[in-house]
């Protein structure tokens, strides 16, 4: 399939960011896993892992479920991952989907996602989709943890 057809067939789920290949994302995920000491034991102590992230300037902000806007599972901004208490509890319980969502949000932060504000005559590709990149990052981290999980496509619920 030609590159042009790739662009036509791809529907963006997130903001357009600098294009990253699967290999580049895997490199960043592997480096993050080394730095943060992510391994198979991490899965059993996600509460301690999330708390430890504060040493790196990453804050986990847990909001009461009754106050959470249910348009998304979690969100991140400026070094903070914001999530409802129910998701936090599922992460601590080691639920694969919840752990995937957490590392997806961490991926946004560690990949430095910022919307690209520019005009382009070319249509975006999946490699420029912040949501695709965060999914790939999370899948790499979960493999490091020995979690076999295939995510559904995450998206905003409107």
Describe this structure in words.
The chain is mainly alpha-helical. Helix content is 42%, strand content 8%. The protein has helices at 3-9, 22-36, 46-52, 85-92, 96-110, 130-144; strands at 59-63, 75-77, 80-84. It has a 3-stranded mixed sheet with strand order 1-3-2. A hairpin with a 2-residue loop joins strand 2 and strand 3 (80-84). The termini are far apart.
| Percent helix | 40-55%
Terminal residue distance: 32 Å
Number of strand segments: 3
Strand order in the largest sheet: 1-3-2
Using the alpha-carbon principal axes, give the shape: globular
Order of helices and strands: HHHEEEHHH
Which strand-content bin applies to the residues? Answer: 5-15%
Largest pleated sheet: 3 strands, mixed
Mean pLDDT: 88
Tally the helices: what do you get? 6
Return Rg in Å: 16 Å
Low-confidence stretches: 1-7, 154-158
Query: What class, by secondary structure content?
Result: mainly alpha
């Amino acid at each position: 399939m030609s590159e042009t057809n790739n662009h036509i067939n791809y529907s963006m789920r997130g903001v357009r960011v600098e294009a990253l290949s699967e290999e580049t994302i895997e490199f960043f995920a592997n480096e993050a896993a080394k730095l943060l000491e992510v391994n198979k034991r991490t899965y059993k102590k996600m509460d301690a892992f999330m708390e430890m992230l504060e040493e790196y300037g990453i804050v986990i902000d847990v909001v009461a479920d009754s106050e959470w806007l249910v348009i998304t599972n979690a969100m991140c901004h400026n070094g903070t991952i914001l999530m409802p208490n129910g998701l936090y509890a599922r992460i601590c319980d080691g639920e694969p989907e919840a752990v995937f969502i957490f590392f997806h949000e961490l991926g946004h932060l560690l990949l430095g996602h910022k919307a690209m504000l520019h005009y382009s005559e070319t249509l975006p590709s999946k490699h420029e989709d912040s949501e695709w990149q965060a999914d790939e990052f999370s899948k790499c981290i979960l493999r490091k943890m020995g979690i076999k999980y295939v995510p559904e496509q995450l998206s905003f619920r409107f």
